[in-house]
Amino acid sequence: MTKKAILTLALSLFVLGGYLPAEAKPGEYSQIVRHLKSKYQAKKVKIPFMFLARFAVGIVRPAGVKSFSVTLFKDLKFSYDRLDAEMQSAMRDSFGPEWSPALRVRNREGQQVYMYMREDGSNVRVAVVTIDKAQAAIIRATFSPDRLADFINDPKVLGISLNDNDDTDVDKDDDKKPDEAAPAKPDGTN
Questions:
Q1: Quick one: which of 52, 131, 148, 190 could link to 64 by a disulfide (CB 3.0–4.6 Å)?
Q2: 135-143 and 43-45: which strand pairing?
Q3: Residues 6 or more apart from 127 whose CB is under 8 A from it?
Q4: Which has more pLDDT, 27 or 69?
Q5: For 23-159, CATH number?
Q6: Is the pTM of this model over 0.70?
């Protein structure tokens, strides 16, 4: 390839990457990110090649996932006593009335999970925030429930089956009716 072709390809990928479908309106996701950074002095963790994974998902759309984003944080500084109330308030303030709280879990060790969902036409948008000790993750995704159900029933990515079914000759004989498994001998015995 020539330098011009490589440059054109790289520029095309960069431009197309900017036009991938958005998961949630930017303000909602950004507000939670800002809350973790400012309130708990969280440091964002860079995930190598995340842009490439997001681009691939936007093109291939495995299991009905149309887009996603993951942001990781470390070194959170907070009080376990107030964290749950503060996060519930931040989530309520960030997500509008079209979002429904789907899950809220807090265990004895202080791990917490918050999940909000909303319908978006034929798609579903999901936002998940997890906090575990001094680490946090924010995950958002947009997916098609119909395509996800199809994937669960017949898991394939790019036409390649992900089923655990092992199609060996032994398994094939087990599926046959008794009189089809082996031809009968001339004397009538099997």
A1: 148
A2: unpaired
A3: 23, 24, 28, 29, 32, 95, 99, 115, 116, 117, 138, 139, 140
A4: 69
A5: 3.30.2030
A6: no
